[in-house]
Amino acid sequence: MTEKSKKVSTEPYKGVRDFYPEDMAVQKYIFGVWRKVSEQFGYEEYAASILEPTELYASKTSDEIVNEQTYTFTDRGERSVTLRPEMTPSVARMVAARKRELAFPLRWYSIQNFFRYERPQRGRVREFWQLNADMFGVNSIDADVEIISLAYHIMKAFGANDEDFQIRINHRDLLQERILHMLRDQSSLPQAIRLIDKKQKMSSETFAEAWATLSNVPFVFETQKKAEVITRLESRGIRNVVLDELLARGFDYYTGMVFEVFDTNPENNRSIFGGGRYDRLLELFGDEVVPAVGFGLGDVTMRDFLETHKLLPAHISETDILICPVNEESVELASELADEFRKQGVSVAVYLGTKKIGDQISLANKKKIPFVVAVGLEEKERNEFTLKELKTGREELVQNRDIVGPLRRCGFKI
Fold this sequence. Notes:
By secondary structure, this protein is α+β, with helices and mostly antiparallel strands. The protein has 14 helices and 16 strands. The protein has an eight-stranded mixed β-sheet. Helix 1 packs antiparallel against helix 5 and helix 5 crosses helix 9.
């Protein structure tokens, strides 16, 4: 086989995913919950290009991401550009660009895709989608409480119980103050913060060895008092919150409160997502300080959580009903009926082919379509059709082509 005729692999690029319809249905469900809850809290959706100047990340994102995990290249105009690895620098750039025109406080959210060149493993891929929610212009604890409340209510909207996840909180500035005096060289503070952020993933011996390269003092903390933000959250009924004195978050731009949401299930005991306050990021653009707090929640860890806790809906299909013609002569009738149902707000597909009714129903089951309607000459003459729910076998009579009532009697929301 010549090089020119060599077959191209059907596998996607390593670390990225193909989304077949069943995968898209799950993603659409997750995105739908994210949007609904964000907008219930008054957050407005925005977007930005996936391409950014490399310099945007060079000074504020962690060195590990910039130097080892970004997809960076030189464009035809000899400019260094990067496929965005995160959203916070982009949204900060957008706010700085129109700071004089915007009405603060801002409540913004986006659902965008990102790229990081890292080793694919459970919970980590090279292309992922992420919900980013941020508030700009409020420097009080009220903003911290709201952003964590938003994160909490997103988890609850998926059906999670309080015992299924834990919200861990710390204060980045206080953490830095507590470790600065331990370091031999204060310029190694960013390195120390990133080391502490990884402490729980390392053995005590490995951590102690790495810490010894930065400090002559053993790493020991005295317990802090419960933070005020925890008390405020508890007063709002959010009680699965704890103080985590080692929580650091890896990005260099965090300045105050930081938090992470952890899955408590032993099968997926890990951080799902997190965020915090980054009041000084807009200084990167030569602008004055604009208080900001936010978080990012990825689709991969979100799906892992939902699957672990069996919270994904049993039925996720874009199609509500498959209309099954009893023979080829009934296809036109089936198409007319489908148009009538669509006018009533129902998603309908018509089977096109020569398979028997039983095979058509099997196809609906395979595609997770919840309902079928068989149509033929007899049904046309009576102007009555039988709606069948495949999961339960329940049947409802459809008269005068009115599908809404029978669907509602089956418990289907429309």
